[in-house]
Amino acid sequence: MTVAPETRTTLQAYAADPAQVCAAFDVDPAVGLTSAQVLERRERYGRNALAEERKEPAWQAFLRQYKDLMQLVLVGAAVVSIIALGDITTGVVVLALTVFNALMGLHQEGKAAQSVAALRQMLIMNAKVRRDGQQQIVPAEELVPGDVVGFEAGDKVPADGRLLVTAALEIEESGLTGESAPVAKGTAAVPGDDVPLGDRLDMAYMNSQVTRGRGEMVVTATGMTTEVGRISGMLSGVEQDKTPLTKQLDRITVIITVMAAIALVAIVLLGLARGQDFDSLFVVGISLAIAAIPTGLPAVVTMLLSLGTRQLAEKGAIVKRLKSVETLGSTSAICSDKTGTLTLNQMTARTLVAAGHRLSVEGEGYSTTGRILTVAGTGALPLEPFALPMALASDAVIRDGACVGDPTEGALVVLAAKAGLDVEGTRRTYARVAEVPFDAEYKLMATFHEIGDVVRCYVKGAPDVLLARSTSVRGAQGAARTWDEVRAAVLAENDAIAAEGMRVLAVAQRDLPAGSVTAASPDELLALVDGLELLALVGIVDPPRKEARDAIAECHDAGIRVRMITGDHATTAAAIAHQLGIEGRALTGAQFAAMSDAELDAQVDEIGVVARVAPEDKVRLVDVLKRRGEIVAMTGDGVNDAPALTRADIGVAMGITGTEVTKDAAEMILTDDNFATIVAAVEGGRGLYDNLMKYIRFQMVVLTGFILTFVGAGIFTIADGTPLTPLQILWINFAIDVVLAIGLGFDAPTEGLMRRRPRSPETPVIGRALGARLATAGLLIAIGTLVVVAYGEDRYGLTIATTMGLTTMSLLHVVAAMQWRDPLASVFSHDTLTNGRFVVLMLVVIALTFLVTTIDGLQRIFGTVELDGPQWRACLLATLAFLVLAELGKLVLRSVVRRRGGAAPSGETALA
Predict the structure, then answer these.
(1) Helix or strand or coil: residue 71?
(2) Could you report the per-residue pLDDT of 480-490, keeping only the tens digit for each?
(3) What pTM did the predictor assign?
(4) Tell me, what DSSP letter sits at residue 569?
(5) Angle at the Cα of 398 (from 392 to 402), degrees rounded to 5?
(6) Is residue 337 flagged as an active site residue?
């Protein structure tokens, strides 16, 4: 890796010392670049982003729409109409329709692309950078060569860079090197020319994942000059998998198309047997093909799902894959982190126990204003010795009332400031000479500092871990008391703080001989974190979110079981769970791990909280729930959560506190880290799926109706086998059904969605019972239309008969749309009348049905005439008969459901 494009031949960054690389970029790593340097380099190097794929030309995208089967059928029909039959009007209108279809397809693709672009914008990666001497968080695409960037376990490396500082740093670079195991990194130069990427141990590369430790680097390449940028042409784009729903609809489309083809062959054979000429039979064929081939159905569903992802994103839930929108509505179990998701993530130290004193801490959040109060008569306690590890063994920075870094560390830093420490000055005075970064495996962080003639190790971490590593406890006057003397008192204080619903952290120290940590390996440093002197216990509160309690109650009504999965003490977690209304007993991770699979299967329904949980425990819990047929959503924010998120049906990452690795593994990202947003997304997913089912049910009814209408006309020789002309069918398809489809696809959410039981994703879109009902509805539409056409043909002639058929079928489609909004509820319900948008669209369709028979221009194009009173009456009687029969059928079905003693939601269970 070279340091910059213009110096490619002069200096290899991996072969140079850190000081040489920094000098080449004119940057002081302690200060970073100045604002002026950043502006100048951004102008010179551009954005730190990979080049986007070449956009498809508009003309090519337009022509691609003609690969659709329906488009090819229409073009062929238009050509034959113009050349063979001499029917120029029909041919031109059909060709115009193909153009309209192509434009609609482009519009749908554009909407979907806008949704994807909006989601990508929300998923921009941030980077921690030092500029003008200050730590800042900026979008990674704003980085420039020479920036000094920091990262830690769970982050993605935002650019290529030469490492300046490493602390137990390991980076997984399989995307570049093919090496699956993480690579231990250091700062020593790697001499040689053309050293393979995998051997450049002093370099970090864009998009590789930090799996352990902490590091700092100077950026040497950005954008397309990075190693990833050089091979980006070989990287695959976003995979556009078809969703399970669209796959089912593809199969249904094929079945209906085959049915239409069989019907067409039967009609042609019947016509030829009767001596009909080919021209008239060809017109029938065009009409049936236009009416019956539902090739646009999966595309419309995909568009609705794409727009649905955008609607969910507006609610704070970024869904990365279309299939996840379907899965959301089926979620039956949510395993949620506590901190920041069920709670506010504004950590505040409330209690300090040190040297036999129990002190109360005032103040809220990350404001350093607040007093530390002691009980009268217990004597004054110098706080500096107890506050030092809070300031020095933490990386968080408090600036302008906000925390940059881990919220729990932020609470400790604020407490140190309230104790009277100048945190920044203290950190400069006692700089780190070594550190053991926090890791979920050993649940502590340790830093080493030269203080006087010793190296002092300051440690913070989980109380049980530090208690196990401690041999003494610091007393009021600095004298150490043996662990055996105070063991019972310390454990009692720990339990008392946790019982109040607070998270407990411990801080400790140990003095080591000077030079004892020089050149020590990470494992050797960790081994030194033993024989500690326990200093204090800190009780930190993170209050539950009010909206989380309400959301958990809503989940209970919706048949969704919520469990809390946390790294906190079991007592703390149980107290918070009780406040939130989470049912079930609390287990520790050790108790959970000790249970056999059989025991866990038998008792998992009784478990509401798993505390002090290890990453493998989360994966195991997901597996157990999935074996029981649950659809599991699992939340996470740390790098160790990624396996569980990948294993869950819906992995949910935190957008604010989540690591980049976790966001990559997740199916959904919460922009506000709020549990209530998960529940809102589930409700949104249910609503979107419910509307899709409304649209699909309606489409199946009308397609069946079209096919049976033409089959019946052929069998019974009604209107010469052509009850509707090709243009009249086009009018129904695009002026009537499109408006009705919009009304259904974008309908208001059905009342009571979150009182339904979760839907199994294995449930077919159209089950046998529902399929029979849809076919019956289609048959009734065909009968109603054919009766009216036959009646009109016998009394008024063919033109009036087909006009009456057009009017009747349009009105029957309106009734079908109203009926199949809900397969069980009556259309004469409060919900129908109060849904203003749907009612307006129904009135629009009725108006269009009237206008096509009265406006002179439309009459000439579609071959219609104005109808008189008796003719309208015949159309309305057929429509009313269909409505009455449909309502009677629903009445019978509702009584069946009541007798079964269940409330089948919208007919899903009992009728599908």
Answers:
(1) helix
(2) 788 778 888 88
(3) 0.68
(4) -
(5) 150
(6) yes
